[in-house]
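Protein in question reproduced for absentees:

***
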Amino acid sequence: MIRLGSMLPQAFMVSITELVKMVGPEKTCILLSRIGKGLAETQGAGLEGVPEDDLHYLPICPFADEIIRFVDLFGERPEEFQAIVKYVNEKEAMDKDKVECPAMASILCLLHNAYRKKRAEMAGFETLHLASKLSIAGVRLAYNEEAMEKAGKTKEDVDRILEKGACVFKFVKME
């Protein structure tokens, strides 16, 4: 049973699956990014995360509880979520500027990356999303190799910080 306090987040998750069925993963991805940017504009400029060396990380994913609750209620990750991940991975494989792509461990990484990037951009920074993970069994770690290279970091550097959190990124001052 869905508790009233978590009904809206769960309704949002169900709406993502319905949106993929109605308009496909591409348009759903566009919407998730727009939502993230829109939320960022309400919050204003800023850099998020815990700084460590010249990187930042989030100790926990702000969406992890909702994703875990959703999977608990509805079973495995729905095929629509997997269609979004597949679409993003295929798009990234063809993208000439892969450094701009999110390291996507879950579908909500799209929304959160757009949010983080927009807030950083308003503060005068570029964001490199290096890696992310989600605490659900069977979900792989996600890396953006090109972003790690641009940041001057190895996978080992990123993994050391990823052990402490859910997401690793670097902010670079825009010129």
